[in-house]
Amino acid sequence: MPVTTSDCPPLPLPQLPEWAAFVAAVKAAPIRVDDLRLVTATGLQLDLSGQSQSPALHACTEALLNTRHFDSLRKQLLAGKIANATENRAAWHTALREPAAIAEVAAERQRMNEFIRRADSERRWRNIVHIGIGGSDWGVRLAVSAFGYAGTWRNVRFVANIDGHAIAGGLAGLDPRDTLIVLASKSFTTAETLQNGQRAVEWLSAAGIEDPYKQVVAITAKPDVAQAWGVPEAHVFKLWDWVGGRFSVWSSVSLTTALAVGSDVVAGMLAGAAAMDTHFAQAPVAENAPIQMAVAGIINRSVLGYGSLNIAPYDFRLANLVPYIQQLEMESLGKSTGLDGNPVGVPTGPAVWGMPGTDAQHTFFQWLHQGSDGAPVDFIITQEADHGWSEHHKSLLANCLAQREALLKGKTYEAALAECLAEGMPQEKAQWLARHRIHPGGRPSNLIVLPKLTPYTLGALLALYEHKVFVQGVIWGINPFDQWGVEYGKVLAKGIVKELSGTQDSAQSHHDASTAHWVQVFARSLGQ
């Protein structure tokens, strides 16, 4: 019988002898600057030299994975079995990128590609306004910025935020007659998306478009709801209930990507992700890149106590990779309750943040190097650039390697003192200033090297992080596929909207004092 998370909830980590052995092995395996450790996956190279490692730690890792029934759970995930226990559904985003996709997925992709071919052949839709939020937004932004950073013949704008300034800016200056509105919402009930979509339809109508809905496309798991909203059936592309929102970049949500930068980009990303799926399914633990990244993350968060993870892509085109991974990791792993209903018992899901290097070096790297807390860093770089200025790329490579080396090796007081004396400082001043130049070193990091930024390598990179998150969920004993914390706030917001609109009595809402005060203040300013 396969072991499912619902049939056999995992015990909290602190109760497992395998966890105690794992922690002991970590503490006996400090980061060593002279140990090179590389893992290769689908052409990507993962350098784990900046992480704890030892033969004993590798053995404890295998034992911990075994006691968590990792192999069975991985097979169930990839086969489309129940992986999301709290919502009783699969998390089968890998099916969207299988070379031999299931019939329904293949048919929907063909419909989407036909829509794109027709639009391209007719040179239609010079402007695209993509309206979605979270998983219906970040992946498309990332792909378009990565492969259309120098511009495309179509002008793509993204509108996510409920702030009216977002939709106002998204529509400003566009020709309504040559603008396609793309609404991406799995449930087709997402408040931000539907309100912004309604404003876009009103904008089209106000411009004299006789049937504005003919210029609207919907991507959703609820096609009947989208059609009832007004979108023509031929313009509704399907998602599936077993595709989590933060994994929807592999679905018809990529229609905007294909219109902006080409169907070949979408196909390449799917191929790269599929290759990483195969690696994840087949590579032994010691050579399995997602597993090894996950274990390093577990060590850094749950054993060494680091509260955050910094993402530092040394490629200008990957600026949107940071919020993409931020959502993937923090929405998936921002949990403190195990599948057995009890507290996990160890720190989980770090805060994820960052920005591209070298901008990051002039913003927060001082804190990474000498701050009291620090954070592990995922350095990501492309070995080969797509521009012709070799001096720029040489500097970029050098900065990436230098920053990582400084975090890893650090600088002792003795070395700093020798530097100060070599600069001709008096002994007393040198001794004082040297203390300010100490770098603690030993701060963990990964280096992920892409041979070149292509759709294939980007797809593989995204799947690498997806599977890493799954492994961490298995080890921590949490469900990485639900997001109840987000849902609670949405429910409260619906009630407050009614109060601000004057259709619900705020006195009956039992708010805290501060919320009650501001509901009344804002209601008055809105004229209610």
Task: Give a short overview.
Helix content is 47%, strand content 12%. By secondary structure, it is of the alpha/beta class. Helix 9 packs across helix 10, helix 10 (263-282) crosses helix 17 (455-476) and helix 11 crosses helix 17.
How does this model look, in words?
By secondary structure, the protein is of the alpha/beta class. It folds into 4 domains: 249 residues, Rossmann fold (3-Layer(aba) Sandwich); 164 residues, Glucose-6-phosphate isomerase like protein, domain 1 (Rossmann fold, 3-Layer(aba) Sandwich), CATH 3.40.50.10490; 33 residues, no CATH class; 42 residues. It contains 19 helices and 13 strands. Strands 1-2-13-12-10-11 form a 6-stranded mixed sheet, with helices on both faces. It has a 5-stranded parallel sheet with strand order 6-5-7-8-9, with helices on both faces. The longest helix is centred in the C-terminal third of the chain and has 22 residues.
